Amino acid sequence: MAYVEDRPHSPPNQPLPALDINIWKRRWVEFQRHHGLKTTSQRELIVDVFLHCQEHVSVEELLQRVRERNARVGYATVYRTMKLLIEAGLAVCRHFGDGQTRYEVSGPETPHHDHLICERCGLILEFENDEIERLQDNVAQRLGFKIVRHKLELYGLCPKALGVPGGHCPDEESRAAKTNSRP
Amino acid sequence: MAYVEDRPHSPPNQPLPALDINIWKRRWVEFQRHHGLKTTSQRELIVDVFLHCQEHVSVEELLQRVRERNARVGYATVYRTMKLLIEAGLAVCRHFGDGQTRYEVSGPETPHHDHLICERCGLILEFENDEIERLQDNVAQRLGFKIVRHKLELYGLCPKALGVPGGHCPDEESRAAKTNSRP
DNA sequence: CTTTTTGCAAATTCTTTGCAGCCCA
DNA sequence: TGGGCTGCAAAGAATTTGCAAAAAG
User: Fold this and answer.
1) Which of A70, A77, B56, B83 is most buried when burial is the number of CB atoms within 10 A of its CB?
2) Which residue is nearest to nucleotide D4 (CA to C1')?
3) What distance in Å separates the CA atoms of residue A91 and residue B34, rounded to the nearest whole number?
4) Average pLDDT, chain A
5) Per residue in B143-164, is it b (16+ CB within 10 Å) or e — as a string?
6) In this predicted model, what pLDDT tens digit does every residue of A58-109 receive, in sequence order?
7) Is the per-residue pLDDT at B124 higher than 90?
8) Does residue A153 belong to the interface with chain B, where contact is any CB pair within 8 Å?
9) HEC profile for B33-59?
10) d(Cα B41, Cα B72) in Å, to the nearest integer?
11) Segment (H or E) for A87
12) Is the pLDDT at B97 greater than 60, yes or no?
């Protein structure tokens, strides 16, 4: 079993290997052609930024990063592009407790991973477990399904929340102070 | 491994055994007392209707059923009550692809189950697999977490969608014709 | 040139809140 | 009584849509 350690919330630490990104870009180009989509700088930018995001970005976060490179991109374009990316199978969306849709890179080539979420402080860890995946396929097969993707989220208490009974988690404030900076 | 068969979308087929409902009701009463909540006919009605729902009801569906018994109940009360039920650990919420929050009965006594969702027709199957659960606890333990609850959703193609390449799924229309009957 | 795409703002949808009156304890 | 509870309507938040101007092929 392999697991990836501790990557709390959004700021991406290490972008995906350029190789993988190219695989997805190729798939994106293919999708564009197949659907007669035009190539626009905004869309390409959004796709690029998205593919460089490590994990589960919200539209707001994504747009923020996109605007670092082109300040004139609007929300609508991001929403529209994410819809395309989902259709293209490059992105999947997730809902953790807060009312935000988060997106992350998807695809058969991706080393898939699941999430472990602390209900007290919102810390999100990632992990991967081949055996679980195998059992999932098993179950699906038994019911006649063919699995395309899946979503596994474990909710509980992180070590910190457990260790200090009644105490705080580091993230607790940062969640409350969530700067809702949309105009 | 045990699995529960085929219960497409909402209309509940078989309510939970009265025994189980009583366990939850007892827990609810306990929660009420502990939180100094008053007993009101609306809330009790909502709780009762909810506990009798087989699976993943949306607020809209829930309210509709509640109104069969008391037409004057409002959305706000349902939302507020569902929040309490979640706090009380009697309900958990889920998001499948449509922009609706769905709720379902939860609790340690519940034989927990996960979902298998057809991306073509929206069919939702349920299943349960103890071994997967065990592996989940395992992973969590390794990362120092204590799991409270979890969410496993497998997305793919149902037998029908697989069997008839390019063909339709039964549910396809009913999803499109989704009567958005809110005033 | 034609067709898509964009950005804005307005519209929708789902959910939460403020508040006056109602009701349980 | 008196603080919680309800229903309504208004407020919020996230996402979608209509449209004229801009960009792509």
Assistant:
1) B56
2) B38
3) 44
4) 74
5) bebebbebbbbbbbbbebbeee
6) 999 999 999 999 999 999 999 999 999 988 888 988 887 778 899 988 754 3
7) no
8) yes
9) HHCCCCCCHHHHHHHHHHHHCCCCEEH
10) 11
11) helix A75-87
12) yes
pTM for the model stands at 0.61
Residue A147 forms contact with B (CB below 8 Å): yes
Question: Stretch A38-43: mean pLDDT, rounded?
Answer: 98
Two structure tokens written together for A49: 């930024």
Q: Which domains, and CATH codes, for chain B?
A: 1-10+109-183 (3.30.1490.190), 17-108 (1.10.10.10)
Structure tokens that stand for B141 in this block:
């333990």
Query: Cβ contact (<8 Å) for B148 and A135?
Result: no
How far apart CA B103 and CA B53 sit, in angstroms, is 10
Contacts of A45 (CB under 8 A, 6+ apart): A66, A69, A70, A73
d(CA B72, CA B136): 44
Sign, Cα dihedral of A31, A153, A128, B158: negative
Q: Tell me which residue has tokens 């189980």.
A: B20
> Which of chain A's residues have a Cβ under 8 Å away from the Cβ of B152?
136, 150-153
The amino acid at B44: E
pLDDT digits (tens, 9 = 90+) for B44-55: 999 999 999 977
B152 and A149 in contact by Cβ < 8 A? no
Which residues in window 147-176 of B are less than 7 A from strand C by Cβ? none
When pLDDT is cut at 50, 70 and 90, the band that residue A138 belongs to is confident
